[in-house]
Amino acid sequence: MERVQKYTKPARVFHWVHCGAFLLLVITGIFLFVPAAGFLAQDSWSRVIHRVAAVIFVLAPLIQIFANPKSAGASIKRAFTWGKDDLEWVRAMPQYYFLGDESTMPPQDEMNTGQKLWYTLLLIFGPIFLITGILMWFFKYSLPSAVFQWSLFAHDVAFILILLMFLLHIYLGIIHPMMRKHGGSFSSMVDGTVTVDYAKSHHGKWYKEIAKK
Q1: Burial level of 5, CB count in 10 A (0-12/13-18/19+)?
Q2: Which of 128, 189, 178 is nearest to 154 (CA)?
């Protein structure tokens, strides 16, 4: 099956490092978030792992930004640039994902609307993670009780929302029947390529551009 290049090696390395750090944050965060799992954090190793993973989670995108500011800026711009096709994608999304009907899905660019939503969520809630995490890590004993509790609440809300979106991202990118039909997107983060069929169905505008070249 014919394939086309979509992601560079640095982009794939960043993706897996960031993903690995996030999974560690999820696992160790659950130890603190769920009272029944609290005994797993009693030896404090989970807290150490949580903090190390948090540093990696923050540093990875910063390194990527400084290494390639032009690409990072373009990605942020694409995430917040919405047009008619994005609104049409949102309207057609229920039929596509729940009924498998892709006839009404509009052609998408290199970053499709679903990816824009995921990227935007990270850009919004990532800083909330960072700020509240710093407050609870370094100022735990000096913060007023009310401020600490609100920081904990905001941290947990951000955690729940990003975790739900992450699980949806995994399902739609790997498990969903329409992804399997078109070759899926998982391979794009392994070897950087996607099938031509997938490129046409999920990134039609982008595929037309690269096909001309």
Answers
A1: exposed
A2: 128
Burial of 12: CB neighbours in 10 Å, binned 0-12, 13-18, 19+: middle
Rounded to whole angstroms, how far apart are CA atoms 18 and 31?
A: 20
- Please tell me the distance from the alpha carbon of residue 114 to that of residue 172, in angstroms, as a whole number: 10
Mapped onto helix, strand or coil, the DSSP state of residue 104 is coil
Q: Are 189 and 1 in contact (CB under 8 A)?
A: no
Residues 6+ apart with CB under 8 A from 112: 89, 202, 203
Q: What is the pLDDT of residues 54-113, one digit of tens each?
A: 999 989 988 988 988 888 888 889 889 888 989 998 898 888 878 778 778 888 898 889
pLDDT tens-digit series, residues 142-193: 889 899 999 989 998 988 888 888 888 888 777 777 776 666 677 788 888 8
Q: Under a CB-based contact definition with an 8 Å cutoff, are residues 24 and 39 in contact?
A: no
Token pair in block for residue 180: 């399997």
Query: Is residue 211 classed as helix, strand or coil in its secondary structure?
Result: helix
pTM comes to: 0.82
Q: Which residues contact 180 (CB under 8 A, 6 or more apart)?
A: none
